[in-house]
Amino acid sequence: MKKEYDFSKGVRGKFYKPDIQLNIPVYLEPKLKEYFPDSNSVNEALRCLLPLMDKRKSKERLKHN
Predict the structure, then answer these.
(1) Which residue in 27, 25, 22 sits closest to 64, CA to CA?
(2) What is the pTM of this model?
(3) CA separation, residue 57 to residues 8, 24, 50, 60, 63 (Å)
(4) How far apart are CA 38 and CA 35, in angstroms?
(5) Which positions ≥6 away from 55 have C-beta within 8 Å?
(6) What pLDDT is recorded for position 59?
(7) How far apart, in Å, are the Cα atoms of 7 and each of 14, 17, 21, 57?
(8) What is the pLDDT of residues 9-46, one digit of tens each?
(9) DSSP secondary-structure letter at 13?
(10) Which pLDDT score, from 0 to 100, does residue 54 have?
(11) What is the dihedral of CA 24, 29, 33, 34, to 10 degrees?
(12) What separation, in Å, do the N-terminal and C-terminal C-alpha atoms of the chain show?
């Protein structure tokens, strides 16, 4: 960052929103797009994997969403 930036009139936290929920994009390999053409198909496949994961971890992760 340059030294000549002037933040004296800046407002801390002006755009901070504690309850914001971000949807971060996930990029699939081109070959996988044949099997997972949209976000619903990806989500369905991931839900099928949840029982295979540690049950405690799965429950904790679902609580955060």
Answers:
(1) 22
(2) 0.50
(3) 45, 21, 9, 5, 10
(4) 9
(5) none
(6) 66
(7) 13, 21, 28, 42
(8) 999 999 999 999 988 888 999 999 999 999 999 999 99
(9) T
(10) 74
(11) -160
(12) 35
